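Q: Two folds, back to back.
A: First:
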Amino acid sequence: MNRCPAAACSRRTTLQRLLLGASLAAIGLASTAQTSVRQFPQTALRGELVVTAAPAILLDGKADRLSPGARIRGTQNTVLMSNTLIGQHLVVNYTREAAGMVHDVWVLTPAEAAMPRKRAGD
């Protein structure tokens, strides 16, 4: 026994197809947004970051510290916890706060790392 009248089933199928198409379009837009290069502050410097034991870090092989409230953003611009990065060698852009501690850090994608950026001491 078919409980779905032909007209109602047709409308439901059409609605399902429209929702599927909209979902696929949204996924396509999201993937193109992720491939764009982020804009960094002019004062941001390039370096290699290794978290040793937060807030202690190595920046370009030299001992340094993260400031209280430091933010580390991953390649998708999500905030990363410093303790999840222990031991990883990451190419980053970073800024310092007034006391000289590292405050904002952006982990770079390969495309972002290929772009020229001033390093500390340059």
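A: Second:
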Amino acid sequence: MVFYLKVHAKARRAKKAMKQFAEVDPSWDYKDFQKRIEDIFFAVQNAWMERNQDIAKDFMSQSLYEDYSSRSQWMIIRHEKNILRNMRIIEALPVFANDLPGDANDVMWVYLKAKMIDYTVDDCTMQITDGSTASKSFVEYWKLIKENDRWVLDEIRQKNEFDLNLV
């Protein structure tokens, strides 16, 4: 309960900051942000399933794209295929927003709670090697930055890798 309250307190502050930033820069508009998060989420998940990060290239920073492309190639070499089904976002809230001079310095951290079926199969045998066919919810924190005048995913941290007190 304390965690939930802390997330929502951070979200209120971040939304207030986004509203102020949007008066000068429309890319901070909260409604557009919600749509962008959804677009990024589904593109990134699809890219993982297909082991083809080009699918989500327009939604990721160059450094994240290169990292995920390398990981995808290793999955192909190891005959691993990630299967994701029934994906849905439960909640996506900005928990930190910072508008610094120059768009290249803008940053936003997003609390993302989602639910999906997530497992890995051997692409030769189609046997499950990791995960479960049960739908499970999870929490991640996403760092978004601006690249080429659009918000892109730059980093993903798991719930246990992120300290809300630091943002």
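Q: And?
A: The chain has a mean pLDDT of 94.
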